[in-house]
Amino acid sequence: MPARPSRFSRLRLLPLVAGLGCATASTPTAPAASAARVSAAPSAQVSKEALAALKLELVAKHGESQKARIERGVEQVAALWRPEDGDLAAFAREQFLPGGPQLDATFGRLERLFEQLDGHMNELGRELQWFTDLDLGPLLPVESLLAAYDPSSNVTSDLFQAKPGFVVLLNFPLTTLAERAKAGPTWTRRQWAEAKLASRFNRRVPAEVEQQVSRAIADANLYIAEYNIWMHHLVDAKGQRLFPQGLRLISHWNLRDELKADYTDAKGLAKQRMIVQVMERIVTQTLPAAVINNPRVDWDPFTNAVTVAPPESVEPNAPERESGSSVKADVAPEPDTRYARLLATFQASRRADPYSPVAPTRIARSFELDRGLPEERVRALLTELLASPLVPRVAKLIESRLGRPLEPQDLWYPGFRPGAKVPEAQLDALTRKRYPTADAFARDIPRILQGLGFTKEKADTLASYIRVDASRGAGHAQQALRRGDFPRLRTRVEKGGMDYKGYNIAVHELGHNVEQVFSLYQVDHTLLSGVPNNAFTEALAFVFQARDLELLGLGQPDAASERERVLNDFWQSWEIAGVALVDMATWHWMYEHPDATPEQLREAVGQVSRDVWNQYYAPVLGRKDSPLLGIYSHMISYPLYLPDYPLGHLIAFQIEEHLKQHGPLGAEFERMATFGSVTPDEWMRHATGAPVSAESLLKATAKAL
Asked: Side by side, which strands form the sheet with 475-478?
């Protein structure tokens, strides 16, 4: 699961520094270039002559040493100034600050203020989503409306209207990604913090547009959080039930994890084929709407037949039906709701496009501003993995272990993981006994962290900052944005306790939370809190998650397990790389077809999924035209998040290779996580000595083979 960004940071006010940053006085930017970096939103159209006169006046007042800063700052303000903002010249005369104590004091004041503003807005947003995020019983009708409300949507607009946003633009410069990558290695920490400060105001998006984006994403999150399949009610052609009573799995996370667990089950192959059929029907929207989160009907996913479930098969903990509703064996498909949610997010995002000409699409903002890596570079890394000649060699090894030709479900083959042969029922019994509640997991965090290599003192300190909640969905980590608040770990805890799926997710989310504590509480500038992008927090969480079985006392690393770890990382990276390509291609298709209907989008996603499958996966997994790559729920509820997963695997592998030579994990994790949100390559050079690359994983895989 992802580390859920706060809505506050996910929208406009807190883009990661890997997007638009700023230079400092030691790295001046030409005024013309600077003007091109900010939005072409409606402006006051101040004449060139007036701006030139203003610059000359300010240089005469403050000296030639300030000329570059003055010219750049005036141009940055002018690009976003509107008629209702008043007299630009008067504002600039009053608010331009030459270098020195007053500029330093202003920087410090703004850093402190924005930590508090960000943090409290984040907490308000968390409260509004409290009941939709957590498993606290049936939702009230008002909850979806509260979750969709974003209290931060007016903040940036208000800060421009009240002028602090213009103070920042007048005194701290913006840069391009290319400039930052080139000059960043020579910057001081103060310069990086200034970059983060300036990037907050690179656009001036109207508050109503921000609110629409927030509402669309909140609606999509709630839709996914309640998308469960009751597995006992899947039947085959003979009416047989392959799954135990009470097993409720969320799409896609739990369906995928159940599929992985079935490799150790005597009926595993039949179960896996059934899950694949369910997944494909979700992607193609051919599953009956009546079977979604409904344990009162039985469903054969192969024939799509639906029947009323016998009363004795209905789970005791089944959710209550709405008053007056009846159970119907309705085969009508879900009416493309999945794609209507995605389209709503796309259409809301498009409204922000005119206010960001430097990154005029959600795609460009995702890569250039949020991720800090050009889309072309990410695509090249993905295709390098997908087209690697190592893939058929690893596939042949898997085939020899399974004793059969590979099938689509083997996309998620887990057999390289230590303890993969342990039956999931045994793991479930272990985790349910140890963690009957979310509080039980919280109490065990200090022991877990010590098992990961943190000192007892550090483990106790970290645990004191982390709060654990039972999630309505599959789980996520929610960061804190001010010192004094606490990150939240959310994972699903069923009635009988936390099963292994929930535990595995909880260990992953714990990795996010530990990073979040370090990168907020121990970073030198709170403006730099966090990591370069979501791929990095995923990578650090993968480092924790890879050790979940060790933390249960099931196996210790040795030479053989090290080889298996490498092969597992390669196969997982190969799997998710294609999923990321589908996510990227889907957004390109929507921009090329902005008036598409949900039905047309469904067809497009199916075709994109089949095309990527046929190119990279069918030759290995043995069946053409599967839409399976479109199953990931992130594509609906976390726009363009999926590329962060393969990147996260690559980064995690580089970190693991570094840890083999420079342990212990605890101290190195802390050193890495406190470096802050600089550019991806700069962070990686600090962490491991090399930029982001697939080379380390590919070399190690070749050696392992």
From this structure: 3-4, 475-478, 488-491, 467-470
Q: How far apart are the C-alpha atoms of 313 and 298, rounded to whole Å?
A: 9
**pTM for this structure?**
0.84
User: What integer pLDDT is reported at residue 551 of this predicted model?
Assistant: 94
Lowest mean pLDDT among 172-176, 570-574, 671-675: 172-176
Give the whole-angstrom CA distance, residue 688 versus residue 693.
11
Q: Cα(18)–Cα(644) distance, rounded to whole angstroms?
A: 14
The Cα–Cα gap between 565 and 301 comes to 35
Domains of the chain, by residue range, sit at 3-197, 227-319+328-334, 359-416+557-642, 424-551
Whether the Cβ atoms of residue 74 and residue 53 lie closer than 8 Å to each other: no
Instruction: Specify the 3-state DSSP secondary structure of 14.
Output: coil
Q: For residue 470, give the 3-state DSSP assignment.
A: strand
Q: Which residue has the higher pLDDT, 151 or 109?
A: 109
CB 308 within 8 A of CB 233: no
Three-state SS string across 487-525, please?
A: CEEEECCECCECCHHHHHHHHHHHHHHHHHHHHHHCCCC
**pLDDT at residue 149 greater than cutoff 70:** yes
155-202 per-position pLDDT tens digit: 988 999 999 999 999 999 888 888 888 999 999 999 999 999 999 998
Please tell me the predicted confidence (pLDDT) of residue 537.
Answer: 92
The region, left, alpha or beta by phi > 0 then psi within -120 to 50, assigned to residue 638 is beta
Please return the burial class of 2, using the count of CB atoms within 10 Å of its CB with bins 0-12, 13-18 and 19+. Answer: buried
